[in-house]
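Page 42, continued from yesterday. The earlier attempt failed because a stray header line got pasted into the input along with the sequence. Redoing it now with the clean sequence only.
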Amino acid sequence: MKTVELDFVGKVAVVTGAASGMGLLASKDLVAAGAKVMMCDVAAGSLEREASAISASHETTAANGEVVQMPCDIRSWEDAQGASAFALDRFGRIDLLFCFAGGYEARMCNSDVPFYEQPREVLDWGIDVNLRGAVYMARSCMPAMVAQGGGVICLLGSVSGFEGNGKGAMYGAAKSALFNFTKSLAICGAPHGVRAFCVSPGPVLTRPGMAGMKTLLGRAAEPSEIVDFILYLASGKGAFATGANYVLDGGRLCVKP
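This time it went through. Structure tokens are written below.
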């Protein structure tokens, strides 16, 4: 599958977690496929550098794509509302929302202790970034989709939503909650042509530590393998997909502990 074969020409996409990892890759691929992309991330410096690099790329020019960037803390209601307002002011519509922002709180907050010893701020970080942020962004962008009669919301789950974790317990709990939230978005969006789906990867090589996680296929996924699948579902080729959680884990959940 080639991303440029998908029908994103002229589509407006909001991407969170866009300064790195799969969010950055999705932003590049969408722009190369002719989309207008608003990149959102809390890491303002990295976001500006990456957005500038995409804007200057040959692929962007050749596809007539466009990219803008906005520093955004998805834990903030005001930031989430500001993101949708910025996109609407710049492009007049929002067709796609990709919620890539997230993280395993024990690692991200450098708190390698069991759940029952985790500080409150670590627990709050895990819930707020992985669940509250997706809720706020969907609530922010969905009214525009309803008003225009169509749109797609993609949430990023994880196999941790099935497995659980004794240290980063909020990560798994939040990802599990996204499975159900996806159904709710699909139910309320369907009468207005708005689809919603969740994709739950296993280990992905966005950082070296993922390489050691077991899967039936004996390896972690390349980021492009996850992003290509997500963009397929978000395109017209995936038009019948809504309300479901798609596990893309190389068979990790089949591996006995």
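Notes: The longest helix spans residues 120-148.
Reminder to self: strip header lines before submitting.
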